[in-house]
Specification:
heterodimer; A: 185 residues; alpha+beta; Nuclear Transport Factor 2, Chain: A; 2 domains; six-stranded mixed β-sheet; B: 471 residues; Amidase signature (AS) enzymes; eleven-stranded mixed β-sheet; 15 helices; globular
């Protein structure tokens, strides 16, 4: 059978998937395990790669959901992209900001949705966190919260310091070299 | 109202006039206050003017002279200090809004007290970058200090107020501090002499610290004899400053007449002849020619020294302000706050590496000074930049201006060497500075070479012509 070009981003389908995406996000924030489970394809072939866990099949996904502590779930979602193919397939991707143990983290999520006889289901999903930036961790360790509006400037200054420090870090110092506690030129 | 010119009189000329009673200290002080009133609105050097106490102090000096007692070698000399030196009864701002809430200082900083005891009359406190963290004196809280030679340009920093007050002829003598170049940079940009003696030679007691491993105190003036006179009054051990050197005092003024003769002088090559506008190397060449110097010398690891100075400054500078960074970050100057946060987060390994490297670098440079007595290098990679200028173009690369103005000064203050920034003028151009550098405690050598350059007419510090906006 000759394949014909799929219908991409049909507004009706996009609206349908957008509503599902929003409902999923709401269920996630409320840790509504029943609803979340229902959004996923009930099959041994469904898949969810979490930040730390690789879950194969609906049973493993459900087991994880049940034991997951309901902390740090709040997240700010941005750059949501929905691409639909014909009326039964969609890819939903987005980025998010979430505080994990007091440290602000940047994450990404991808889901493949398929319209099955029982309705739209997530058949495969992957959540990841962008590797933690030193600044966030150091600021937390130092008990020094950085206001949002200053973050980018502080990040740039740290990058500059790293650049300027390079020759110093590249130089080999003998183990016998000590700093002068009271410096006398 | 007619424009009031800056005064060309140097400190020692004034002191001689007052001591010989040809003019009264009160007359001198009144004139200085009038110059401040006329010239400062356009330049913004002062954060506090102490008219009443200055006039009262001048009267005391005049009374002492009438009574036949000696008011000191700087009798009646009007002076100002960077607003990080404590002045009894005045709140030390250190360029910050946060410090403005603090109570007035109980007593004068050691350096202020020494100048006062020598008969000098304190006219006021002078503008600076917030907490001394900058090279431009573009202070959001208290305004930018303008360059007397071009009002659209910065005066340099962080001791911009003290430098511009001298360059404009408002005052013959001021005090600044130098951690990475904060005396030498504004001296170069404003075309005056700025002297950063050896680390620990002048007490920092009662001065608001920036980065204690590197903070120095020193004078600005328009003549080398004034620098020497101020240094002779200021230096010496002080138990109130843990970094103060125990070395006995050693007067420099009597050494000046020796000039440069007998001193082995070389021009720094490599790092100090590389990244800068071509014009900044001209004064060094001119000075070397005048002094008959052909020798060049390589200061090793200057780039590493600059890195290490930068790291130590960032870490120590930020640590002092941790409580305020936590609770009131938006009360800092928007131009310094990100630097302070970044400095508070640098890895300790970097800081310790920098402190250990300082020991190594010191050994290397002390060996260098077995071969030469004095080294010449440019003070800055460019003349004064425009106010608000974000980048400078060096060797075809656009670099952020603020962190790069100090590339030639940072590697040298890093190990506390005595250095004078000597001003050189070329018609139609902004002034530039030459760093005259010597081994630790060899203040006499840098003063002698600076005096020689001054006598030869290579170095000069003319009072800036008043600009129209001053009228």
């Amino acid at each position: 059978m000759a394949s014909s070009a799929p219908l991409i981003n049909d507004p009706v389908v996009v609206a349908e998937v957008t509503a599902l995406h929003e409902a999923y996000e709401a269920a996630l924030l409320n840790n509504d395990v029943e609803k979340l489970t229902d959004f996923f394809w009930d099959s041994p072939l469904s898949l969810r790669f979490g930040v730390a866990e690789s879950l194969y099949g609906a049973d493993e996904i459900l087991a994880f959901r049940k034991t997951r502590p309901a902390v740090d779930l709040a997240r700010k979602v941005f750059n949501t992209r929905i691409v639909t193919f014909d009326d039964d397939c969609a890819v939903v991707t987005m980025e998010f900001i979430r505080d994990v143990a007091g440290i602000r983290r940047h994450g990404r999520q991808s889901q493949v949705w398929r319209k099955l006889p029982q309705g739209w289901k997530v058949v495969s999903a992957h959540v990841s966190l962008v590797p933690e930036f030193y600044m966030e961790h150091a600021a937390q360790q130092a008990g020094l919260p950085i206001p949002d509006s200053l973050r980018e400037g502080v990040r740039q200054n740290l990058e500059r310091a790293k650049f300027i420090a390079k020759p110093l870090l590249d130089i080999a110092l003998g183990t016998e070299i000590e700093a002068a506690p009271i410096f006398e030129p | 109202m007619t424009a009031l010119n800056g005064s060309r009189e140097d400190a020692l000329t004034i002191a001689a006039e007052v001591r010989s009673r040809r003019r009264s200290a009160k007359e001198i002080t009144t004139a200085a206050l009038a110059r401040v009133g006329a010239l400062d609105p356009a330049l913004n050097c002062f954060t506090t003017v102490l008219s009443e106490s200055a006039l009262a102090r001048a009267q005391e000096i005049d009374e002492k002279l009438s009574a036949g007692s000696d008011p000191g070698p700087l009798a009646g000399v009007p002076f100002g200090v960077k607003d990080l030196f404590n002045i009894a009864g005045v709140t030390t701002l250190a360029g910050s809004k946060i410090q403005a809430e603090k109570p007035p200082a109980v007593r004068d900083a050691a350096a202020v007290a020494k100048l006062k005891n020598a008969g000098a009359v304190l006219i006021g406190a002078l503008n600076m970058d917030e907490y001394a963290y900058g090279f431009t004196t573009e202070n959001t809280h208290y305004g930018v200090t303008r360059n007397p030679h071009d009002l659209e340009c910065v005066a340099g920093g962080s001791s911009g107020g003290p430098a511009a007050a001298v360059a404009s002829g408002m005052l013959p003598l001021t005090l600044g501090s130098d951690t990475n170049g904060s005396i030498r940079v504004p001296a170069a940009f404003c075309g005056i002499f700025g002297f950063k003696p050896t680390f620990g030679r002048i007490s920092r007691a009662g001065a608001f610290l920036f980065a204690e491993s590197l903070d120095h105190v020193g004078p600005f003036a328009r003549t080398v004899t004034d620098l020497a006179a101020a240094y002779d009054v200021l230096h010496g051990p002080d138990p109130d400053d843990p970094a103060s050197s125990d070395r006995p005092r050693s007067l420099c003024a009597p050494e000046l007449k020796k000039g440069a003769s007998g001193l082995r002088i070389a021009v720094a090559d490599g790092y100090f002849a590389d990244t800068g506008l071509p014009e900044v190397f001209e004064p060094v060449t001119r000075a070397a020619k005048a002094l008959g110097v052909q020798r060049t010398i390589t200061i090793p690891d200057a780039q590493v020294a600059r890195s290490a100075a930068y790291i130590i400054t960032a870490c120590e500078g930020a640590n002092r302000h941790l409580p305020d960074l936590r609770t009131r970050p938006f009360d800092f100057d928007p131009v310094t706050i990100q630097r302070f946060f970044a400095g508070a987060l640098l890895p300790s390994a970097w800081y310790v590496q920098a402190q250990r490297f300082r020991r190594v670098y010191r050994e290397k440079l002390l060996r260098l000074f077995e071969e030469v007595d004095v080294i010449l290098a440019p003070a800055t990679p460019c003349p004064a930049i425009r106010i608000g200028q974000p980048t400078i173009s060096l060797n075809g690369v656009e670099l952020p201006s603020r962190p790069n103005i100090g590339i030639f000064t940072q590697p040298l203050s890093f190990i506390g060497l005595p250095i004078i920034s000597v001003p050189v003028f070329k018609p139609g151009r902004l002034p530039l500075g030459i760093q005259v550098i010597a081994a630790p405690y060899n203040e006499a050598a840098v003063l002698r070479v600076a005096a020689q350059l001054e006598a030869m007419g290579v170095a000069e510090a003319p009072v800036a012509a008043p600009t129209e906006s001053v009228a």
